[in-house]
């Protein structure tokens, strides 16, 4: 039957999408797997997994994802099930788990070992309830042997960590450990050695307990960051390729005598915000050093340890290309001494970055005092912050 002009116009207005919506062709599902994977990568893993109910075509697509980013997940068995749903190598696995215990990690980590071929990131989100519990109650777990991982970042909320006794992390280049209670310092030293981690380039250890000493012997390491290692008494670093080294509040928190030996002839950047005593701190010749970072408190009591460290460290370097100097004001400065006059010399520098943590105070006098000591600089960056530091 011939259609009237009005009927034909109405059909054209509905278009092909009307037919698809009424049970026509599913063009999205007809896309190749790799295109659908790119679409699902824009979703969180929970939403990506829900697409499996759309049709038989979608049932397995989420299992092909090379990256899994879990939000806050509380069921370790569900996490293990998700990881076991596929054998596709993961270039990224990111997990956030509230109040994790050693037992909960033991449930899913073996499944992660089988799949992670890139980066593993784990955050233990410790609540106020868990903080009040004894750390030993949450146990100690042994880090599995991730032979294919290239990067491991663990924020453990002070769970106990035991390093694997054997195995070579042949592909590992980055290791980042935060809020860790170590089972044994010897295990850590062995695990990050050149024999066990021949390609390790970046090592960061922050906020730890259980380390009375740390000895790093690595031929490949290029960046080393040590922050807040509570109770540490001795640090030794033998790293011929090291270019960037940070030592931040490892000795000063417990007022320990710093016993440090650093052999790093290729070092280019040294960030030292800790106790310093030339009689017990031995730094190798650093002919390639270009950047030095230090800290000074503007007001306080004479002999303040960080100021003493700064005044003792800076004269060791006669010439330096780039100096980063942080000046910090305490919130309350009444009845405190003005300490800038203790600083009488700086290295011969080309560039200066002066960071001032002002906390509402006028910074002119302290800033100009520093500038008078380095009148020959060619480049100056002045940065002022107005905030508190938790450790002050």
Automatic annotation (TrEMBL):
CDD domains reported for this sequence: F-box_AtFBL13-like
Biased composition (Basic and acidic residues): 14-26
Region of interest: Disordered: 1-26
Pfam families cross-referenced by the UniProt entry: F-box, LRR_At5g56370
Residue stretches making up the F-box domain: 25-61
Highest taxon above the source species: Eukaryota
Name of the protein described by the UniProt record: F-box domain-containing protein
Source organism of this protein record: Eragrostis curvula (weeping love grass)
